[in-house]
Amino acid sequence: MGVRGIAPEELDARREVGARLRAARRTAGLTLRHVAQALDVSAGTWSAVENGATKIDDARLARAAGILGIEPAALRGSAPAAGWRDFGPLRLEPPLAGALAAFVELGYHGATIRDIAQRARLSVPGVYHHWPAKQDLLVALLDLTMDDLLTRARAARAEADGPVERFTRLVECLALFHTHRRELGFIGASEMRSLDEPNRIRIAASRQEVQHMVDDEVREGCRRGEMATPLPKEAARAVVTMCTALPQWWSPEGPSSPETVARQYVGFALDVVRLAR
Known about the structure:
By secondary structure, the protein is an all-alpha fold. The protein has 14 helices and no strands. The relative contact order is 0.09.
């Protein structure tokens, strides 16, 4: 069983629904408090729903979907609608887009709300209308990053059979994400230290979940004799670090597409774990 007697699969389902609710709210340009008031619940309760700590019933889910302007069925899915390999344009509401551009260029501590407002083509009060503090923008971007990456990683892993194939899919997923979504990946790697508690602990736990997926497949591959590294934990960490470092150098103007890089990195990763050939 999972936390407080809740099965792990139930916890995963709650977290996925919560992540989709949070993403839909932000796409609609609504604050957590606005949605909570519309649903006649406290902001704390709605925050718990979005973080997967509290279950939402079907009636309230339908009401929330109406407020957010989407179909209830879209909130129950477990994988990206277009598939984990497919990346459309990154669409963010203007303050988040401005914050992402400013944090990538100037760093979190170097960027001001005025810098964010300029890149979002808004006034400073326009940013503050929905986002009380710069920290809230960083938290929102890192939540979006981890929600998307986790959903894709779970889908990639679920479609494969056996530790080698699952490991291969996870590496491909990580490489594709950190190229197609290089700006999000960049701040995900560089700005964790800028998070305040308790958000740092929560988002770090999501990062660790991705790492543990890879750890588990390398450990199982070694147990079955399909991988021969004498240091499975260290090898798994090296592989994930290799993928998360991609935003530091990869550019869409360069010679290699995300798909080419992903194929190359799968080969590198199989060498690291010493695939039995």
